[in-house]
Amino acid sequence: MKRIVLMGNPNVGKSAIFSHLTGARVNVSNYPGTTVEFTRGFLRVPAADTRTEGLYEVLDAPGTYSLNATCKAEEVAVDLLETADVVFNVVDATNLERNLYLTLQILERGIPVVILLNLWDEAIHKGIDIDVSKLEQALGAPVVPTIGLTGKGLSDVIERLMTLSLPAGNRTPKRSRDEIWTEIGRILASTQTISHRHHTWLEILQEASVKPVSGFILAAVILYSSLRVVTFLGEGLVDKVFDPFFARVYTPLIIRLHGALGGQGLAHDILIGRVRNGGIDYESSLGVLTTGVYIDFGVVLPYLLSFYLVLGFLEDLGYLPRLGVLLDRLMHRLGLHGYAILPMILGFGCNVPGALAARNLESKRERFIALTLMSISIPCAAQQGMIVGLVGRHGAIYLGIIFSTLFAVFVVLGVLQDRFVSGYTPSMIVEMPPYRWPYWRSQGKKLWMRMSHFIFQATPYILGGVLLVNVLYATGVVAITGHLFSPLVKGVFGLPEEAVSALIIGFLRKDVAVAMLGPLSLTPKQLSVGATVMAVFFPCAATFTVLFRELGFVYTLKSACIMFVTAVAVGGGMNLLLDNVLTPVSYVVLAILAPILLAMFAPGASECREERQWRVEYKGQDQGSITVTSGRN
Amino acid sequence: MIYMTAGTAGTAGNGEMDLIDLKAGQSGRVKRIEGGRALIQRLEALGIRPGRIVKKMSSVFRRGPVTISLGSFEVALGYGMARRIIVEPVEGAVKRCD
Ligand SMILES: Nc1nc2c(ncn2[C@@H]2O[C@H](COP(=O)(O)OP(=O)(O)O)[C@@H](O)[C@H]2O)c(=O)[nH]1
Ligand SMILES: [Mg+2]
Question: How high does pLDDT run on average in chain A?
């Protein structure tokens, strides 16, 4: 089977095209670095021609700007190129100059290439006129305009693929980098004309987003309204859809099952759990079909749905990298640069994709800091949903306590890691995607992809988690470990011994673990401590697997130690402060202000190191720097 | 950091400066990149290379990142990176890039 590799700069629509070609579902987002691993799919073309087989393997490579790989994701792309029978070079038609640099490098390799002039709709919209047949001549390879969003032009691409003649050996001799740029200048002059046009309001907004004053105002507005939309939609879904569904449809079914099972016995207790005065309390019955299903669909799903709706919008708009620019200064205090905000934000959805996105960070130090910070202080949407559902009813201030504590942990731990984790954090270089009005169909696709992932992959774990709780109780494990950890759980955290079961389940699923606190009839303060400890304590099994894969054994162990120590310190601290010293409100104020002051005035350790690193690099490679000689342009 | 004071012949510039000192809204022609080969290649692949005219869009705080426009797209560069890109200011010469 022949292999087609999709190559191109980051954020040019490779994944969009890949999903149209293969029907496979992949993440498509408006910022560089969405794809860090390659994805495989298959393309069947009508075997009209005997020279071309019917079935092709298609690989969606991470984006790269050149074949001189400068980071891990780019290395993957360059390695894939070596294995390609055919390259589909996806090119951003609105950015020919930058994109052709890679194109010319690929063409030098002597592999058959089809060039996909993507974002064609946007090029037209921006008044960029490209003479396709001239470009084809200049490059010596087929060029086809495409629109990745709709799949327009892809049938032409396949047609060209079938008639692609295989060049023998190297087609073009290797040129120097300067020669390539001169060539690009020549090609652009003869094929592209740009008509002048006024700035659109999206472009004006784009500029305002990274300016100091307007940028922070916009960020505040966007983040605040995102939060409002998520809670509004989430509550609306619960009140209008999920609660009525459970009350009117699901409960009668369960009652009937309760009767059919005879109201008792092992199967009954596992499936339905404890029934009080003939009614079902979904939160405390602990049955797989009651509490399990309720956590999954009644609490987490609505929250997740509204969260991903908003996240998808911000992703496709292209806002997130700009938030990274605004926060770069602050993130440096935590040993990270601004773009590291992206994995963190993805982590608020689910830590797994967040941890994978951290692969875009260059140094091992950054990846370690980012992954540790994320696993400790960023609760995933499922966990947040459960916290909001369980703790929120005691008053928003308790949510404030939990989230401000997590914020404080994030900042303090970041500052500490910046000090004590060796290595340096390079500055960022990121292309800012243009703002694009999100296209509703791809938004829908993405939302469905994420929701179905949750429904099909997470549901078994949630139901299994509830089942496991029953087993732990029945076998007495809870009682034994409860006794064992009693000094910690009771003495330090001020929680009842049974809370140990929740902590154990936390290894499996955080949402179930938080739900386990429900039946323990805790005070609001105890709930806050429990939920926070649960978040900090340990990542769920799925995240842990990714950590292990990304960091290796030793670093995962280090990270786990940090988690454990932090959890004990934070749980103990909360228990102590909230009991005798501070009112909830003053606690929240302190938890927000103190870390900010710390971050502002703590000396930035990595920054000094960064300076040093560069001086060394500069001295060492002085010959490498180029000085301009001519005034061309 | 050493600043050269004399303007280079044939340009409208008033000397060299790094991207931090270039004012927002001003354009500059890249003179050189004070970095190792890796940095140079990385910037070059984005089109940031000697001779290229870039426009500074904004900067966040004194030691924050700088956003520059290369005509059809924008790049954000961290402070440390921006300090190492030496440009020569040009005035009103960016028709092609706008
Ligand atoms: N207007 C327009 N948007 C596109 C087109 N192709 C892709 N996009 C959008 O461009 C962004 C980047 O696409 P993606 O496939 O993630 O790019 P990748 O990083 O190269 O894989 C997404 O927001 C897409 O919806 C196109 O032809 N026209
Ligand atoms: Mg992609």
Answer: 87
The reply to whether residue B40 touches residue A625, judged by beta carbons under 8 angstroms, is: yes
Q: Of A455, A548, A460, nearest to A509 (Cα)?
A: A460
Tokens of A542: 């799925």
Residue A476's identity, in one-letter code, is G
Q: Which chain B residues touch A614 with a CB distance below 8 Å?
A: 35, 80, 84
For chain B, the domains span 2-7+18-90
DSSP state of A9: S
For the stretch A196-224, pLDDT in tens is 777 788 889 998 999 989 999 999 999 99
Which option is the CATH number for A2-194: 3.40.50.300, 2.40.128.20, 3.40.50.720, 1.10.260.40? 3.40.50.300
Q: pLDDT digits over A501-538, tens only?
A: 888 888 888 989 999 888 888 999 999 999 999 999 88
The answer to whether the CB atoms of B65 and A211 lie below 8 A apart is no
- A20 and A154 Cβ atoms separated by less than 8 Å: yes
Express each pLDDT in B30-79 by its tens digit. 999 998 888 898 899 999 999 999 999 999 887 889 999 998 899 999 99
- What distance in Å separates the CA atoms of residue A65 and residue A303, rounded to the nearest whole number? 38
Model ipTM?
Answer: 0.83
Looking at chain B, how many residues does it have? 98
A28 CA from centroid of ligand 1 (Å): 7
Q: Looking at CA atoms only, how far is residue A182 from chain B in angstroms?
A: 11
Quick: pLDDT tens for A91-122. 999 999 999 999 999 998 888 999 999 999 99
Residues 6+ apart with CB under 8 A from A431: A10, A11, A32, B46, B73, B74, B75, B76
Instruction: Determine the distance in angstroms separating the CA of A508 from the nearest CA of chain B, rounded to an integer.
Output: 39
Q: Ligand 1, residues A14, A28, A432: which to mutate, most atoms within 8 A of Cβ?
A: A28
Q: In which residue are the tokens 């009080």 written?
A: A276
Of 3.40.50.300, 3.40.50.10420, 2.30.30.90, 3.40.50.150, the CATH number of B2-7+18-90 is 2.30.30.90
Q: Of A132, A140, A315, A154, nearest to A222 (Cα)?
A: A315
Distance from CA of A632 to the nearest CA of B (A): 6
Q: What span, in angstroms and rounded, lies between the C-alpha atoms of A297 and A291?
A: 10
CB count in 10 Å sphere of residue B94: 17
Q: Is the CB of A148 under 6 A from ligand 1?
A: yes
What lies within 8 Å, CB to CB, of A111 at 6+ separation is A81, A84, A85, A86, A87
CA distance A598 to A337: 18
Q: How far is the CA of A442 from the centre of ligand 1 (A)?
A: 10
The CA distance from B83 to A190, in Å, is: 35
Ligand 1 pocket member A29 (CB < 6 A): yes
Would the CB atoms of A633 and B34 count as touching at under 8 Å? no
Q: If you take atom 13 of ligand 1, which residue's CA is the nearest one?
A: A13
Q: Whose CA is nearest to atom 17 of ligand 1?
A: A13
Per the CB < 8 Å rule, is B73 touching A428? no
Judge whether A300 and A457 are in contact, CB under 8 Å: no
Q: Which residues of B touch A181 (CB under 8 A)?
A: 49
A68, A631, A633 ranked by CB distance to B10: nearest: A631
Q: How far is residue A98's CA from residue A184's CA, in Å, rounded to a whole number?
A: 9
